[in-house]
Amino acid sequence: MSDVATSRRVLGPSGVEVAFSWFQRIVAVYCLLFGVLYWVRLVGFYPGPLWRFDLMPIHWQVAAVTLAVLFPIAAAGLWMLASWGPVIWFICAATETAMYGGLSPLFGERLPIVAAHAVVALLYIAFRIVLHWRKRRAQQ
User: Fold this and answer.
1) Alpha helix ranges (H) inside 46-110
2) What DSSP state is assigned to residue 98?
3) Residue 1 has pLDDT above 80, yes or no
């Protein structure tokens, strides 16, 4: 093999970049699921107590409408790998964490949702650190 062939760089994405894009798309699917669940709650499709918009207390109305709109937007941004997708996801995750963590007397406790948001945030931070480290290493 010649020196020219061995010194060429591969222009395709690395394995970490591919894994990061798959991670974002998996999070996009779960954001879309959460958005659909909030819409189900708003239109009253589920026959449970306080599962219709007109029967909800005002704090639930505000939260449900906000998250029903923002979760699908976050899903679209994450699926397209746009830079604003994780930002919108963070707003949704922070809102739900505040609802189910800090304001649990009003919204109830849903620790699995809070834990899922924490795990996704930690994985996102880990991916970004690894990608930054690899980029710096490639520049040197």
Assistant:
1) 58-79, 85-97, 104-107
2) I
3) no
